[in-house]
Amino acid sequence: MADAALRLSEITEQLTGAPPPLRIRAWDGSVRGPDGTPALVVRHPRALRRFLWRPGELGLARAWVAGELDVEGDLYEALELLAGALWERADTPRRLPTAGQRAAARSLLALAGPWPPPRPPREEVRRRRGPLHTLSRDRTAVSHHYDVGNDFYALVLGPTMVYSCAYFSPGATLEQAQHDKLDLVCRKLGLRPGQRLLDVGCGWGSLALHAAREYGARVVGITLSAEQAAYARERVAQAGLGGRVEIRVQDYRTVGDGPYDAVASIGMAEHVGAAAYGRYARRLHGLLRPGGRLLNHQISRRPRATGRAETAYHVDEFIDAYVFPDGELAPLGETLGALERAGLEARDVEVLREHYALTLRAWVANLEAGWQPAVAATSLGRARVWRLYMAASALSFERNRIGVNQVLCVRTSPAGDSGLELRPRTWRE
User: Fold this and answer.
1) One GO molecular function term (predicted)?
2) Angle at CA of residue 280, ends 274 and 284, nearest 5°
3) For 347-364, what is each residue's pLDDT tens digit?
4) What is the set of domains in the chain, with CATH numbers?
């Protein structure tokens, strides 16, 4: 069809009531839209089929991953413009489509061609089986995300191999900021030589190594990812810390060798889920000695005032399908309530939202700088998934759509003793 970009622009305006917020470059070479903006490149009509099959974010994401949809220009600016056109309208009341919108949808269907779109490759989208948050299903979900390949993650994360929010000071590099985050966690936990630390969701072993090397702690790190565990064990051996650090492939629900002086859960609780969160909090409480501390570092979402009953946990369709299967986000208040109901006393909350935006932008820059090796280490589809989700997440943190918080809790003694001294906060330097 001649001038497909014009038809897409017209259809978009009929469907949404506004012209496209960015340029459209179609498969026939035609271009329409406002000058000076990034271009949404529609490389094939299949992208339209995917959008019609799964309207909104997920359909667009599937077209992106398949390479049928791309961005020419600044990716962050393009995502921000699309967010204003699509995602920020998600909470508006739904109305029946008008006659003009129904006609536009028929035009889009005709432009899209044969129906339905092809299914995504099996390795990119996890197929779900069995009840939610069983031991086996959680193990499969974690493997989908973390067993992408250690070489791929090394390119994205850099030498620290830390896959959670860094802690930036002015002018700090990503590597310095990740070191400072690990040290912040250890100081909040009050680690001393010989104390036992349980690192729940230990990743590639960075916190375990830091706590053992810098604070003399004896650390057990647990993960459900076999690839992470193998990498972490190699790092422990190379550092000569085998006598102080043990890495296990183990679910937190099966840990039975407490009590521990401290427990760190950094970027792991998002995988726990609404139904299991109370059990998670009670389990960690039970693994702590009286006076022991828990540092829970977790992404949160904003509460919604929708006029309907609030749903405490939120699942993002694209993230759930392609990135973190079965992951759920809760408002900070819900997390605090669950930890307190488990018997833990919340002693400090620190919000790191802006820090995570900086972290994600640094990871995207690493991925883009090492694009060809990253693709070779995993696949083109997976690399495109990670670039999209990290860039979109950076914007979500910057715009306060989601947050991330460190919550320090204590298991008090039966007499109510927290073990904390009466003193000002000392972990921020």
Assistant:
1) methyltransferase activity
2) 155
3) 999 999 999 999 999 999
4) 4-112 (no CATH), 135-410 (3.40.50.150)
